[in-house]
Structure formats: structure tokens, C-alpha cells
Design a protein that fits this description.
Layout (H helix, E strand, L loop, with lengths): L6 H11 L5 H17 L11 E10 L5 E7 L4 E3 L1 E4 L7 H13 L3 E4 L6 E6 L9 E12 L8 E8 L11 H12 L2
Parallel strand pairs: 1-7
Antiparallel strand pairs: 1-2, 1-4, 2-3, 2-8, 5-7, 6-7
Length: 185
Amino acid sequence: MSQVRSRGEVLARQLQSWVPLSAEQTYRRQEYLEFLGERGESSLDREGGSDHLTASCFIFTPDFRKLLLCFHKKGQFWVQLGGHIEGADATIAAAAERESREESGLDSIRMLRGAPFDLNRHELASSFGRCRCHWDLGFAAIGAGDPRTSDESEDVAWWAVDELPERVPWDFRVRVANVRAELSR
């Protein structure tokens, strides 16, 4: 008989078994494991505190030459799609996929694995309300089609991975490079 595990326990196991390619991601992995250990399931809930986990998705075209980005209304920059984890999300990867579908309007999104490829903790401006720090879990997927904007974005567009827009977070290009390296393993 198998034991049912919580989403936080599943995530902790995924992170424990992942050996990131970059030293920075290795350091982040340890921070995330400590955060999960301290906060447990409440770390997945935006109501559980101003610091919490979020789920995002780097959606590539099937040839991996383009990446789907949204122009975030609150942040005023181009970034991968994603958002808060909801109670109805069976897994963290399911949250990333749901957010991606909601924000992109794409029907065709195929997640590449159930574990994250990228970890990024970032402080938030006051425009984000009571959220002060997002501990983002970046997943990867393949998508196709013409995207549509949502209530949370001003624009959604495919960008060549080697020609990303100027208005991205300061570390975004490194994050994309790390995800691409992880994908090429």
C-alpha cells in the first residue's frame, strides 16, 4: 500500500534528488529545502504568509528556438508565465501548467517533467500587495499556437531565445540559460 504524500513532501523529494548544473541553483536548492522544512504546506499558500512558493513555466516552441513571455502588468517587464499555487492544483507542476494556460490562452502546452528546472527567489514591490517575496519554481514546457493576453498581462508574445526583449528582470537571461542547459542534459 503506497502512502499519499502532500505536495510539499513531493516537492522536497524532487529537490533532494535534483543535482543542478549551476552552483547558484545548488545554493538555491538548499535554501528552498530549508524553507519547505520550516514552513511545510503553508509555504505553498499565498495566505500562509508574505513569503511563499509560486509556480512558473518557461514555454518553448517545439524547436526550442522561441520562448513565450508575458509583459507583466504589476512588474512592468517581460517574464515567463506563472503565479500562485491554488488548493485545487494536484501538484506544483499542475499549478505552473494552469497558470500558463490562463495567462497565454494556449491550448497546446506539454510539460517536460513534473519537477522544476529553475529556482528563483525575488523580493516584490509594494504594487504586489501583501506578497513580499516569491520563491518561484520554474518548470519547462513545449507550446504552440497564437497566445492571447489575460487580465494579468499587457502582452504575450514569442521571443527568439537569443534575442530576448530589453525589459526583463536583471537575472532573467541567466535563468533562461540555466533552464536551456538543464534541458540539454
